Amino acid sequence: MEPGIFYLRFENKDTESTTGPKTETPSCSQDEGKAQKHRGSRCLVLMTVCLGLICVLLLVYIILQYFSITAVTNLFKSYKNKVEEFNQTINSLQDNYTDLMNEKNQLQNNINSLTQRKQELETRVNNLTAEKSRLLESFDSLTQKKQELETRVNNLTAEKSQLQNSFNSLSQKKLELETRVSNLTAEKSQLQSTINALNQKKLELETRVNDLTAEKSQLQSTINALNQKKLELETRVNDLTAEKSQLQSTINALNQKILQLESKVTSLSTELKQAYEKGYRWGSGWIFLSNGLNSWSESRQYCRNIGADLVIIKSEEKQRFINSIVPERAWIGLNDIQQEGTMKWVDNSPLNQGFWFAGEPNDAGGNEDCIEHIPYPQYPIQTWNDLPCSEMRKAICEK
Ligand code: 2F8
Ligand code: CA
After folding, report:
1. What is 164-190 written as a DSSP string?
2. Residue 20 pLDDT > 70, yes or no?
3. Domain CATH for 330
4. What is the distance in A from the centroid of ligand 2 to the CA of 295?
5. Is 184 within the bounds of a domain?
């Protein structure tokens, strides 16, 4: 039977009898009281029955709940047992998993060591293979060598046979040579004595040669030094000769110059004497006119050679005096060489008063920087004219 399902049978005979059809009715009021009383009893019974049914239903419900809770409790217990079983199973699986992992690690280690071992074996195999190749090559070369040695042994055997024959003939020859050697030994002994004597002589001669060589070397050094000295002296002599020659030339030139100067001095003395003889006193000094024609510079040099200079005229009185004693064109000591238009005397003093001919100085041709005296009978004072310095004139000197 399923829990919670309940069937109830109920039969009410009283109710059926009361609800059936009525056949008798005694009186009206008594009948109505009895009927009401009867209906009240039936209602009470009905309520009691309903209440009893409700109690029964509640009881059934409680029983059903009890069974239900019991079943749930059992189910919970069975679930709990299942969980414990699962936990145990999980734990055992966990242990199995750990064991398996350990086993796996061991296997992995084994694999690694086996792999390493395999690599070592492979390396070993490779080495052995290489060694085998080398051994095979060595074997081949040794085989080749062996063949060569066999050939060599054969050749040497033949050679030995030939050498044996030669040895025999040489033994014969040796005997002959020994005899010859004995003779030669005696001869050599004699020669050795001679050689010793000659060596002694040679040593003496070598010593003598060395001495002579050293002596010769010393003499050669002396000769070289003397030659050097001789060369130096020759050079010195040559230099001195050349110097002497130069000095002689200089002396000759100087003598020539002295002669010229003496001649010049003589002529200047004569000229000076003549000048002074022809000169005129001006104050404490002299004024005189040169003989020859010269440029302005040469004329000034002429005056300086005789201890004078070109004349300086700073007064009308002196100008008149010059004009009276100099009857021809002649240089005076005035020029504007340094700066055109600015006249200066030979003592560098400026020109303050000029005695110019009419229209002068005109710097004709732009080249007239030196001043001359031109005597004009009709013009006793205005006698100066500017002229190119290269023109040839006499000089009026003053001392
Ligand atoms: O020889 C140059 C000279 O010639 C003339 O004088 C002779 C000039 N005089 C005139 O022209 C007036 C000078 O000035 C000139 O220096
Ligand atoms: Ca002029």
Report:
1. HHHHHHHHHHHHHHHHHHHHHHHHHHH
2. no
3. 3.10.100.10
4. 16
5. yes
